Amino acid sequence: MTERTYDEVQEPRPVDGARMRAVLGHFASGVVVITASGPDGPLGFTCQSFSSLSLEPPLVSFCPAGTSTTWPRIREVGRFCVNVLAADHSDLSTAFARSGTDKYAGVRWRPAPSGAPVLDGVAAWIDCTLEHEYPGGDHTIVAGRVHDLAADETREPLLFHRGAYAFTAPPAR
């Protein structure tokens, strides 16, 4: 690799959203559904921008779109559950990504300690309270404090890669 001199460095140029999406699509991500128990029934939306944030204190983060109509309702509740979808949950991901439909039609779930839905068969779930919220361009950056969590070691995660669901082979045991 050759070094560049100060004179050779180019000024940053605007990044096209479509190009950014195509390039960042090379990074595979898990898929989660954020759920809560609202005053009018269960709430939820699909999100692929989720990560562990801190071990001390225990925090996770996710980024709902600024256009989300579900996140403001979950924010009001203040408690939510992150459901890590399993490899066979592409249908759940699609259902919870839609607006204006009954996202819970035919979906089995049980309440987490907070009362938020834990969807049946998920690879893992993380029960949280809202800790912080920050503006993040066309998204909101949410930090949630973890109060309880569990995983099913037999379930593989649903992945999203290059604009489509991706599946992994189970590791040799």
What does this 3D model show about the protein?
- Strands 3-2-6-9-10-5-4 form a seven-stranded antiparallel beta sheet.
- By secondary structure, the chain is mostly beta strands.
- It contains three helices and twelve strands; from the N terminus they run αβββββαβαββββββ.
- The longest helix is centred in the N-terminal third of the chain and has 8 residues.
Range of helix content: 10-25%
**Count of helix runs:** 3
Unreliable stretches (pLDDT < 50, length at least 5) are: none
What is the molecular shape? Answer: globular
Question: TL;DR?
Answer:
The chain is mostly beta strands. It has helices at 17-24, 71-77, 90-97; strands spanning 29-30, 32-38, 41-47, 50-54, 59-62, 79-84, 109-111, 117-119, 124-136, 139-151, 159-161, 164-166.
Key terms for this structure?
seven-stranded antiparallel beta sheet, 40% strand, 3 helices, globular, 13% helix, 173 residues, mainly beta
Layout of strands and helices, then pairs:
Blueprint: H1 17-24, E1 29-30, E2 32-38, E3 41-47, E4 50-54, E5 59-62, H2 71-77, E6 79-84, H3 90-97, E7 109-111, E8 117-119, E9 124-136, E10 139-151, E11 159-161, E12 164-166
Antiparallel strand pairs: 1-11, 2-3, 2-6, 4-5, 5-10, 6-9, 7-8, 9-10, 11-12
